[in-house]
Specification:
single chain, 299 residues, alpha/beta, D-Maltodextrin-Binding Protein, domain 2, 14 helices, NMT1/THI5, SsuA/THI5
Length: 299
């Protein structure tokens, strides 16, 4: 059987959020479904833009990018939520004497300079009775938490199962504030597997087969975290073994969580998040979740 070449554009350098793709590739799940998958490292252009214009077949994206894209008439559809809950948290070193959001007044936040960062921080500050205008926001780009908080900044926004876990494994004591634990409207599946409406229209069976193989990869990681971690280390040898093992173990219970199946996307959760985006003036209109979410390709 001749394999069909497909590409998947990552959102970030390879990490455990992507483990299901590497497992599915390594174990031959994609080739079983007639697919030769090429995993592409991220570029300066977002996955929504490249997938929307057909320069990549599939991509990894986020709810906010997806909603912005739909409002700009970019024909993007999300096929699956990789992790059921938003697993990102604000994090600081405990030796910085920060105990609450109020203690972040006057501190330096290091981020990537996006409008939703400002909106999220402002929202959290106001809800906690803290003064947002006392926060110093610095654009530090993709700098890792550990070196960044040694001199440049006091806190950053990281994934629980990656940079925060990496700090803990190095024996650094950290404090966290995870928005999903405090605000249901900020708790949506993240990251997301996206494709274009055009791809769905022209090759629905191929999209279905891609998602079947991908689901098998993530289900394997959920049931066999140790073996899945070994596979990821084999596929991406520059990754730190200890971190991959600990992270995969942590994520194995988070990937599906209480959803009926891995990848399932609840429209109401996306609508609640889009409603929040409108409330804080990130968007002017709320796109219909049914137009940009499609669970029908999940096996």
């Amino acid at each position: 059987m001749k394999l069909k070449n497909l590409s998947l554009l990552l959102d970030w350098k390879p990490n455990t959020n992507h483990i299901g793709f590497y497992v599915a590739k390594n174990k031959g799940f994609y080739s079983q479904y007639g697919i030769q998958l090429k995993i592409l490292n991220p570029t300066q252009t977002t996955a929504t833009a490249l997938v929307g214009t057909g320069k990549a077949d599939f991509g990894i994206s986020y709810a906010n990018d997806l909603i912005y894209a739909r409002n700009a008439h970019v024909p993007i559809v999300s096929l699956a939520g990789i992790i059921q809950k938003d697993s990102s948290c604000f994090v600081w070193r405990t030796n910085s004497k920060i105990k609450s959001i109020k203690d972040l007044e006057g501190k330096r936040y290091g981020g990537w300079g996006s409008p939703e960062e400002n909106a999220t921080l402002k929202y959290i500050f106001e809800k906690n009775g803290a003064q947002f205008n006392k926060l110093k926001i610095l654009t530090t780009g993709a700098q890792d938490f550990l070196p960044a908080t040694l001199k440049n900044v006091d806190f950053t926004w990281e994934y629980r199962a990656w940079n925060i876990l990496a700090a803990e494994l190095k024996g650094v004591s950290v404090g966290t504030y995870c928005p999903n634990e405090h605000f249901s409207e900020l708790n949506k599946p993240s990251p997301l597997v996206i494709t274009s409406e055009n791809k769905i229209k022209r090759e629905p069976d191929l999209v279905k087969n891609f998602m079947k193989a991908t689901s098998l990869g993530f289900e394997f990681a959920i049931q066999n975290p140790e073996q899945a971690a070994k596979i990821l280390i084999e596929e991406v040898p520059e990754l730190e073994g200890n971190l991959v093992n600990a992270s995969t173990k942590m994520l194995s219970s988070m990937f599906q969580a209480d959803a009926p199946k891995w990848g399932y996307q609840s429209e109401s959760r996306f609508e609640a998040y889009a409603g929040w985006m409108k409330k804080v003036d990130l968007i002017q209109q709320i796109p219909k979740a049914s137009e940009y979410l499609d669970n029908s390709f999940l096996p």
